[in-house]
Amino acid sequence: MTVSNPPPLANAQAIAERAQDHVGAGRLAASLAALASFGLRHDGGVSRETLTATDLAARRHLIDQARALGCTVGIDDCGNLFFRRPGREDLPPVLTGSHADTQPVGGKYDGAYGVLAGLEVIAALNAAGIETLRPIEVVSWTNEEGSRFGPGAMGSSAFVEPARLAGYRDVADAAGIRFGEALDAALAESHDVTRVPMARPMAACVELHIEQGPVLEGANVPLGVVTGIQAVRWFRVECTGTMAHAGTTPMAVRCDAMAAAVAIAQDLYALAPRHAATPGTPELRLTLGRWSVAPNSVNTIPGHVTFTVDMRCLDDAALDRAEAALRAVCVRHAHAPEAVTVTRFFHREPTHFPEAMLGTIERACARASRNAGRALPVRLTSGAFHDAMYLADHCPTAMIFVPSKGGISHNAAEDTEGADLFLGAQALAYTVAELASR
Ligand code: HGY
Ligand code: MN
Ligand code: MN
């Protein structure tokens, strides 16, 4: 018995299967290699920090790629780029994509994979001759990494809440360049791109990303259904002392900013295991990633030492306790009030993705894995933050992961098997096509 009008979901799933089956492994690999050439390093990594000349050149490359696929291109006030494939009806689009900026020493896939797999979904839909009910947009968010200008995920957080942009524009990088200046230069470079409003309604958002951790590889599973993202907080600890001569100043009378900073750092590293709370509760992860010393001279006692603290945990209460401990440690090692200051400049609570989205993604991953004779997907939480953590405040959102070799990322050695990159793009194509067909 044939059903004249198949129910929307069955119809949407049929479209999704066709989209999945038209993903091109070679086309994806070629686009990944092409984007990696913007900032490619001698060690095989990629250095393409946000809004640098290298990043602007990569943005232009993505605009050209998207236009060649028939997409229209938009840019918003935070420089987020949107590559749009029209749908039968002008409904809120399904959004996918990620970020194209990298760490100072990054890899080929962190962020870039999600943007290019999104464009590969467009190519697959074109190849299959599929017209979806809804438009589909592939986004390349500005400044996800937060390494040049903190905090991270500036573009996606400003898209969701535009009032945040004003504060972001004043943030300066290590050379004193303000985010607003770099952003205005990027907007000027994209003068041929239509300006689009921020906070536009989206039907749903799916971000594909490398795991950047060891879980999927350890389980020998090629696809992960991401259920949520752990909380993150970033702090700047500034220690002030008195610059003085390294040779003539007796130890007993020194006011050494480095001595205070090192004592604080040692106490912080000691608190991490303690704040991992009781066994079986989520680990507290602590990183003191960036240090600056003034005057940074071998024979002058440091007068100023500033370092950053990155704290992560799935349990926000554990982060509350760790933050209180951080502040107490700083007071304890300050030789005078205000000699040590703590500024929190990034704070994102844990993110939990909706079950309805997870089910769709699970179906997409299972079909791709089954067709490839690979293990079925597993569910996991993300140790890294992603733009999806803000989109989750805006529309139904979820993520798909593929494995990272050795769990390595934010490192030139970041790598993922081509077969896994292909499966991830197939799962994305299914998910996006199904969501855009209902
Ligand atoms: O730091 C993060 O979690 C992200 O990779 N930028
Ligand atoms: Mn990333
Ligand atoms: Mn990253």
Per CATH, the architecture of the largest domain is 3-Layer(aba) Sandwich
Give the fraction of residues assigned to helices: 25-40%
Tally of DSSP helical segments: 13
What order do the helices and strands follow? HHHEEEHEHHHEEHEEEHEEEEHEEHEHEH
Strand tally is 17
Write the CATH homologous superfamily of the largest domain.
Zn peptidases
Report the biggest beta sheet as strand number plus sense, adding barrel if it closes. Answer: 10 strands, mixed
Q: Kindly report how far apart the N and C termini lie.
A: 24 Å
What is the quaternary state of this protein?
A: single chain
Which small-molecule species are bound to the chains here?
(2S)-amino(hydroxy)ethanoic acid, manganese (II) ion
What is the residue-mean pLDDT, rounded to a whole number? 96
Tell me the radius of gyration.
23 Å
Low-confidence stretches: none
User: What is the molecular shape?
Assistant: globular
Structural class: alpha/beta
How many domains, in number, for the residues? 2
Q: Write down the CATH class of the largest domain.
A: Alpha Beta
Can you walk me through this structure?
With 438 residues, the protein is of the alpha/beta class. The chain has 2 domains: 8-229 and 351-436, Zn peptidases (Aminopeptidase, 3-Layer(aba) Sandwich), CATH 3.40.630.10; 232-273 and 280-348, Alpha-Beta Plaits, CATH 3.30.70.360. It has helices spanning 8-21, 25-36, 53-68, 112-128, 154-160, 164-169, 179-189, 215-219, 257-274, 316-332, 355-371, 388-391, 418-435, and strands at 72-75, 81-85, 94-99, 136-141, 194-195, 204-210, 224-229, 231-240, 244-245, 285-287, 291-294, 300-301, 304-313, 340-348, 351-352, 378-382, 397-402. Strands 1, 2, 3, 4, 5, 6, 7, 15, 16 and 17 form a 10-stranded mixed β-sheet that branches. Strands 8, 10, 11, 13 and 14 form a 5-stranded antiparallel β-sheet that branches. A two-stranded antiparallel ribbon has the order 9-12. Helix 1 crosses helix 4 (112-128), helix 1 runs antiparallel to helix 13 and helix 4 (112-128) packs across helix 13 (418-435). (2S)-amino(hydroxy)ethanoic acid binds at residues 144-145, 152, 384-385. Belongs to the peptidase M20 family. InterPro entries: Amidase_Cbmase, Bact_exopeptidase_dim_dom, Peptidase_M20, Peptidase_M20_dimer. Residues 232-334 form the Peptidase M20 dimerisation domain. Its EC number is 3.5.1.-.
